[in-house]
Design a protein that fits this description.
Elements (H helix, E strand, L loop, with lengths): L7 E5 L4 H12 L3 E6 L2 H15 L3 E5 L5 H9 L10 E4 L15 H29 L2 E6 L12 H21 L4 E8 L2 E2 L2 H5 L4 H7 L6 E2 H12 L9 E4 L14
Parallel strand pairs: 1-2, 1-4, 2-3, 4-5, 5-6, 6-9, 7-8
Helix pairs in contact: 1-2, 1-8, 3-4, 4-5
Bound molecules: NADPH dihydro-nicotinamide-adenine-dinucleotide phosphate and 2-hydroxyethylsulfonic acid.
NADPH dihydro-nicotinamide-adenine-dinucleotide phosphate binds next to helix 1, helix 4 and helix 6.
Amino acid sequence: MGRLQNKIVFITGASSGIGKASAYAFAAEGADLILAARRIEKLNEIENELKKKFKVDVLTIQLDVRNKKDVKKAITSLSGKWRSIDILLNNAGLAKGMSKIYEGDTEHWDEMIDTNVKGLLYVSREIIPLMVERMQGHVINLGSIAGYEVYPNGNVYCASKFAVNGISKAMRLDLYDKNIRVTSIDPGMVETEFSEVRFSGDKEKAKKVYDGWTPLSGEDIADTILWCALRPAHINISEVIIMGTAQGSTTLLNRK
Ligand code: NDP
Ligand code: 8X3
């Protein structure tokens, strides 16, 4: 019997990378899942696999977290047991481009801030009240090492993750007396679709980021997220900074 039987986990950005790996990790512990992302066909494939392999209930929602109205509609229309969300994994996020602040693409800036900051807030605003009502829950936010350390040409992405860092700290102040845990998971480089998205589909350029060293995998982060979720109820893991052994900082990599 899984340790999260009868628990409900809501994951944003579950169609790929860390979110997808987390869906598998939570399902393996028996949790029922609400999976949200824009690419519904990917979510549907994951749903089928999870149901078959782990016999858990899965609900998929096509959702762009940037759309405040859609976020509200998706969450207010949840019914029955699906309203009793135990764990919210605020994972949807992305980087777009790398450039000097005076040369940045403002469309990229909007996309990063709207997704990483405003999207996370919209989803949280709808789900946390359901947790407060039940006086239980766990919010897990995907921050980044980029929320502690700025690197050259990372300006707006880093700023968006500094914002997530601040939001996680603020959530903890607002929720510690509501029996709701808040965890910030802050990885260094993880090999997912992240770099491909950052470099607008340039697979070669994306691959180079991970060449010559062993980066973290989505599964490594999912394992850490699950570990936080499985701590006894009186323990809140506030922040986890996790990097590959060959990563010394946002800019230092021990490539072979
Ligand atoms: P991926 O690109 O593999 O996954 C990103 C996920 O976010 C996808 O499922 C994507 O789904 C979803 N997403 C993006 N935009 C939206 C949106 N507007 N609405 C809903 N879902 C959206 O990258 P990762 O798994 O690496 O990234 C996950 C999180 O981890 C991000 O917040 C990222 O900033 C953070 N992170 C990543 C690190 C890394 O090096 N990879 C390191 C530190 C933190 P879809 O396109 O289907 O909507
Ligand atoms: C992703 C990690 O260092 O590429 O948040 O910005 S980094």
